[in-house]
Design a protein that fits this description.
Strand content: under 5%
Oligomer: single chain
Number of domains: 2
Helix content: over 70%
Shape: elongated
Length: 359
Amino acid sequence: MVEAGLAPARYARVLQSDDRAPLLQIVKTGVAASLAWVVCLAILPAQLPVFGAIAAIIVVQPSVNQSFAKALERTVGVIVGVVIAYLAGLVFGQSTWIVLLSIVLALLTGWALRLSQSTTVQLPISAMLVLTIGAQTPGYAGGRIIETALGALVAVAVNLVVVPPVRLQPAHDAVAALGKETAACLDGLARLLVEPSTAAQRNQALVEVRLLAPMLAKARAAVTSAEESLRFNPRRRTNSEALELDDDLLAMLGVIVGRVPGMVRGLADNYDESLHTESTVTGLADEMTRAAHDLRLVMQDSDLDGDEPEPLTSEVPALTAPLRVITPSPTHWILIGSLIEDLRRVHEVIVEAGQSVRR
């Protein structure tokens, strides 16, 4: 009974999305559809401009670049679909099975031309409508092409006039969160090196460091979305510098995220109680703490968001003195050597990023 009661709510959830479209885009879509209807009706008064309004609704997208792409997809799809229907009717005449043949031919044409999914879907729809409705309406095919093009142009114009919001803040937030978590993982690794730990604590560190990969993917997606929102956007010039900084920080964090999980995994796999007696381990842990400090300093200097900055022991980079390495025991030399090499690369990208941010 409980399962049956929960089923409608579960299915209703499929229809909902956590990331709904901004209200501004909804308003612009309504305005574009209305304007497209008026413009198409003024130019083609013989038929209701349904397809012009449909084109306008589809073409209004979160970014100007996406609107251009949708306008092109929609127009090309209609033109190719109409041509396929026209040729099929010309060769085979008017019959019910010609509609089915045109649908198949349209889909195969989209596949053969490597058209996008939305363009490929548009081909059979246009072909089917031309062969059914257009058979009784003279000039329907040509009118449909003109109407669709007008609706797409109106939608692009509306998106250019009412500029879509740039999506910089989600990118800033995602990069900042990744930097914060990466620094915390470096601190955690330093603690594991200098303090005795249980298997549960090392496993917990592995779980935490594995979360860096999906956070990196999320940050990359957010930066890509921000770049998309700025393409063909009149506000690109004023916001491009901040986005370039996000790109630089993401490149740095990508290198560190590629190293830190392996460092934690190596420590967990090769851990023993005598590791803390190694003379080099204390200095190595100190360098990791310094790396975490400098990473936070780079993120703070970049001023990605308005949050209160994390307290730092110093406003000056800590990775300044060379690490003195004493020959480790045969039991630990591979682990210590790999940690030193990974830390060298982490140090390198942090210093490069710090210099870039402070220019």
